[in-house]
Amino acid sequence: MSLLLIKKIWTALLGLTALCVLFMSAAFLKDLRRYFNLSESTSVEILEWIPKEIKKDRFESIVNYSFQLGDKIFEGFYDFRKPTFLNRPSCEKALVKLQERSWQVYYNPKDPSQAALQKFFPYKKMIHVLLSLAVLVYFFYFRDYLIRLLPEGEKRVSPLDSAN
After folding, report:
1. Percent of the chain residues topping a pLDDT of 90
2. pLDDT interval class at 67 (50, 70, 90)
3. The pLDDT value given to residue 164
4. What is the dihedral of CA 112, 113, 114, 115, to 10 degrees?
5. How many other β-carbons are positioned within 10 Å of the β-carbon of residue 20?
6. pTM of this prediction?
7. In DSSP terms, which residues pair with 69 in a beta bridge?
8. Distance between CA 13 and CA 138 in Å, rounded?
9. Residue 80 contacts residue 62 (beta carbons within 8 Å)
10. 55, 30 in Cβ contact below 8 A?
11. What is the dihedral of CA 18, 24, 84, 77, to 10 degrees?
12. Mean pLDDT of 69-86
């Protein structure tokens, strides 16, 4: 395999990996920002519990809620995306259990219309970012490994250098 072909393949893989890191980092930072923006909480009034069919044989739980801040009343819907249920009776049974809990609403003090009944730290997306960064670091190590494999007679250049 020629050095030029190796450089092109390596550069393409590096670019693709960098784009993945960028995309995953943006998604993580968006969720992290939302997590920290929902910094205040208050009591909430649950108006309605709704089992919703999201596709054939899949149901999720949705709640209609309202809360009051000062003289303003805010209303919204919240999807309990997980778990999903295979049928309506199992979803309704889970809703009964959810109704037994006392709930707080988390909201953004700068924009109370941004609210949620649950807030989760985005651990899964953080792990995706860390793994994709590890792959990016691997590609830089792989470049050095490929350069060491070249025969002594070949010109040792970085794959990032332009081809002559």
Report:
1. 54
2. very high
3. 46
4. 80
5. 17
6. 0.76
7. 72
8. 11
9. yes
10. no
11. -150
12. 90
Q: State residue 141's pLDDT score.
A: 82
- Name which of 15, 34, 29 is nearest 126 in CA terms: 29
Measured CA to CA, the distance from residue 107 to residue 112 in angstroms comes to 5
- One-character DSSP codes across 136-148: HHHHHHHHHHHHH
- Rounded distance, CA 159 to CA 164, Å? 12
Q: Token pair of 120, please?
A: 């989760």
- Per-residue pLDDT of 111-160, as tens digits, reads 999 999 999 999 999 999 999 999 888 888 877 777 777 666 554 555 55
At 10, which helix (H) or strand (E)? Answer: helix 3-37
Task: Give the Å distances, CA to CA, from 129 to 108, 119, 136, 142.
Answer: 26, 20, 10, 20
Contact 45, 74 (CB under 8 A): no
pLDDT above 70 for 40: yes
Length of the chain: 164
At which residue do the structure tokens 């259990």 appear? 97
CA–CA distance, 129 with 32 (Å, rounded to integer)? 13
